Structure prediction request, 210 residues.
Amino acid sequence: LCSYYLGYIMMHYGIAKILPVQFPEVTYRRLVQPYGDSSPMGLAWTFFQFSDGYKMFLGLGESLGGLLLFHKRTRLIGGLLCIVVISNIVAVNFFFDVPVKLFSSMLLLLAFIIVAPDLRRLFDFFILNKSPEIKVFFDPFASSKWSQGIFIIKWLFVLFIIYKTISRNWEAYNMRTAKPYLYGMYEVETFVINKDTIPPLLTETYRWRY
Prediction:
């Protein structure tokens, strides 16, 4: 259950970064905001929004880690990859005051729970330089036909999850990229309220600048 849940969440956020939905292009409002007025979260979000390559790198790491969790033979390497990826996310959330600290910490804990049964084998291999004990994967079905049938059903379910995640994010991406004809940044040259022209002074709080 931990593997499937974490795998789905990682696929969801990974695809949201690849398209991109979670970090779309930098807004004009952000571009004209003074650097010193940025909140810690706003600064981090602008950093992620700026580079399409970095968003793709993060999204692929999350998606690959999530996908590996769906199969028991790749679950360990998927959990290790998720620990690396989620640790970076948790650090950003805490040090840039992003308000999903508890949720991301819970995901990191789930990744450690998934890896926990293999900690002894990892310790033997990486620290003691010993050949780790061969892991025998449990098969609840005596018949190979039942095992193959469950294997097919499971991966059909996984493909359905991936399809729904991609389609949902694709729909959100199309909504965000659909812009009006006059979309853009305009500098206000003349601003009139009740037939009175407001001068372009920085002390004037009612006048629009952009």
